[in-house]
Amino acid sequence: MIDVEEKAQLACKLKAEGYNCAQAVFAAFAEDYGIDKATAVRITAGLGGGVAKMKDVCGAYLGAAMLSGLEEGCVDPSDMAGKEHAYKVAQELAMRFKEQNGSTVCAELRGVRPNPDVKEIIPCAVLVERAARIYAEYLNAKNA
Question: pTM for the full model?
Answer without folding.
Answer: 0.96
